[in-house]
């Protein structure tokens, strides 16, 4: 079989970027998507250029961008084997704390963006009998005080479960990746003892490396002794 084609949203930084590096090491061809095209182009060049990795500008809240991203993957490599809906960001806690416009963009990115990535890539995943992964969060497993971000990640948890149930019988696998604190630009100041992005990338590669009859449904990874 040709090398797997691995599409990642939010590949310009943090967990997505680390996953792209790990997947490249594993021999995958990469479709790197985010809004900052220059960063993606640098990463794609570093990972081997157009034969091995392409950069696609995609704002995940825009359906046209999402469709163009999937089309670019198929144009370049003819298939999508893994789609990782990872783009997202947070907001300060407190229902009086954050700017309502920031909330709007966060909800659209974290919730609608993930749904649109599923929708855009599913036809190709059906074709390849591929693997869908979503970045949820520990915050999508327990409510955090005053956190609308946490509510968006509960939605992602539900979306992963909903997709898994819908896709039963297709052979497509669905995995929720649920990180605790990770040292990325997600935080202005990452908490002491946070995980490294590569720790999460390793979990992603574990899930996609299983044989076809094994569907790793969820991987929740906290830093040792993170309590919430
Ligand atoms: N860091 C943590 O502690 C932690 C814990 C649990 C879950 N997570 C989740 O992990 C995922 C990745 O975050 P990270 O920690 O790796 O943070 P990060 O380094 O800030 O990466 C976020 C990525 O999302 C992309 N993105 C944001 N809005 C986008 C949009 N509208 N369209 C396309 N791409 C967009 C960013 O790229 P551009 O700006 O170039 O578009 C960037 O590549 C997020 O879903 C986050 O909620 C993080």
Overview of this structure, please?
It is a single chain. The chain is α/β, with parallel strands linked by helices and 228 residues long. It is 43% helix and 16% strand. It contains six helices and seven strands, in the order βαβαβαβαβαβαβ. The chain has helices at residues 14-25, 37-46, 63-77, 100-128, 148-166, 197-208, and strands at residues 5-9, 29-34, 53-57, 82-85, 131-135, 173-179, 218-221. The protein has a seven-stranded parallel β-sheet, with helices on both faces. α4 packs parallel to α5. The longest helix is centred in the middle third of the chain and has 29 residues, at 100-128. The structure holds NADP nicotinamide-adenine-dinucleotide phosphate (NAP). The site of NADP nicotinamide-adenine-dinucleotide phosphate (NAP) has 29 residues, from α1 and α4.
How do you describe this structure in short?
This protein has six helices and seven strands; from the N terminus they run E-H-E-H-E-H-E-H-E-H-E-H-E. It has a seven-stranded parallel beta sheet, with helices on both faces.
The mean pLDDT is 97
Pick out the low-confidence regions. none
Fraction of residues in β-strands: 15-25%
Query: What is the alpha-carbon Rg in Å?
Result: 16 Å
What ligands are attached or bound here? NADP nicotinamide-adenine-dinucleotide phosphate
**In terms of structural class, how would the helical and strand content be classed?**
alpha/beta
Distance N to C terminus: 42 Å
Q: What strand line-up does the widest sheet have?
A: 3-2-1-4-5-6-7
The total beta strand count reads 7
The ordered H/E elements are EHEHEHEHEHEHE
Largest sheet: 7 strands, parallel
User: Which overall shape is indicated by the principal axes computed on the Cα atoms?
Assistant: globular
Total helical elements: 6
Query: Which percent bin holds the helix content?
Result: 40-55%
């Amino acid at each position: 079989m040709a090398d797997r084609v691995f599409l990642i949203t939010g590949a310009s930084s943090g967990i997505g970027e680390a996953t792209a590096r790990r997947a490249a090491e594993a021999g995958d061809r990469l479709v790197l998507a985010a809004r900052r095209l220059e960063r993606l182009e640098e990463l794609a060049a570093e990972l081997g250029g157009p034969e091995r990795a392409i950069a696609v500008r995609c704002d995940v809240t825009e359906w046209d961008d999402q469709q163009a991203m999937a089309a670019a993957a198929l144009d370049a490599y003819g298939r999508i084997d893994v789609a990782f809906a990872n783009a997202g960001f947070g907001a300060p806690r407190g229902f009086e704390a954050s700017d309502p416009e920031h909330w709007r963009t966060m909800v659209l990115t974290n919730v609608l963006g993930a749904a649109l990535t599923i929708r855009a890539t599913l036809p190709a995943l059906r074709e390849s009998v591929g693997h869908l992964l979503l970045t949820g969060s520990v915050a999508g497993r327990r409510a955090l005080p005053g956190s609308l971000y946490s509510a968006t990640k509960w939605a992602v948890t539900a979306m992963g479960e909903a997709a898994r149930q819908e896709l039963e019988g297709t052979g497509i696998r669905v995995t929720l990746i649920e990180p605790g604190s990770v040292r990325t630009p997600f935080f202005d100041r990452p908490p002491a003892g946070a995980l490294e992005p590569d720790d999460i990338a390793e979990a992603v590669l574990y899930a996609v490396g299983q044989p076809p009859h094994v569907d790793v449904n969820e991987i929740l990874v906290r830093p040792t002794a993170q309590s919430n």
